[in-house]
From TrEMBL:
Family: Belongs to the RER1 family.
Protein name, per record: Protein RER1
Keywords: Membrane, Transmembrane, Transmembrane helix
Function comment: Involved in the retrieval of endoplasmic reticulum membrane proteins from the early Golgi compartment.
Topological relation to the membrane, as annotated: Multi-pass membrane protein
GO terms under cellular component: endoplasmic reticulum; Golgi membrane
Signal peptide interval: none
Location of the protein in the cell: Membrane
UniProt entry tagged with the keyword Transmembrane helix: yes
Length: 188
């Protein structure tokens, strides 16, 4: 009997619960619309909770800062063209001229991880609203104004980076082609 591999019954149950959780999480991967609808519902529940108890604004502010950080990662390329240009240039980069080879946009934070982190953040923030120790009295309009200024400045910088390096982090569906013309429909 190996002494290092002995697991308690609690550890075995926790491991089994984690496997079941991961199984169902993996099954949600192709259903992005439903995942985002679920996250929106969690967001609404959180907002109703904060609005109804008129408190926990500092939790909301921290949540907003965290979500802004996630959004920046979601909108940023995996390899920053400015950092890649400073190095030897051997890595992948975004095309800057029409003659450059097309390289697809790869996010620094993939959509699934963005969704998962956002949903976890809302759930954790919701749970924190049940503990009065996190209800720090603050003047919430100041926090809101500061967050809006931070958001505008951050997005302005991110958008100027996108324009400078000519990348668009969104693709609206798959490109559709009209198909080939039949030989009889061509006018010769």
């Amino acid at each position: 009997m190996d002494g290092g591999d002995v697991a308690t019954p609690v550890q075995k149950k926790a491991h089994e619960a984690w496997r079941v959780y991961k199984y169902y999480l993996d099954k949600t991967t192709p259903h992005s619309t439903y995942r985002w609808i679920g996250t929106f519902v969690v967001f609404l529940i959180y907002c109703l909770r904060v609005f109804s108890i008129h408190g926990f604004y500092i939790i909301s502010y921290g949540l907003g800062i965290y979500l802004l950080n996630l959004l920046i990662g979601f909108l940023s390329p995996l390899v920053d063209p400015e950092l890649d240009a400073a190095s030897d240039g051997g890595g992948a980069s975004l095309p800057t001229r029409g003659s450059d080879e097309f390289k697809p946009f790869i996010r620094r934070l993939p959509e699934f991880k963005f969704w998962y982190s956002m949903t976890k953040a809302f759930c954790i923030a919701f749970l924190m609203t049940f503990f009065s120790v996190f209800d720090v009295p603050v003047f919430w309009p100041i926090l809101l104004c500061y967050w809006i200024v931070l958001f505008v400045l951050t997005m302005r910088r991110q958008i100027s980076h996108m324009i400078k390096h000519k990348y668009i982090p969104f693709s609206i569906g798959k490109q559709k082609y009209s198909g080939r013309r039949s030989a009889g429909s061509r006018a010769d």
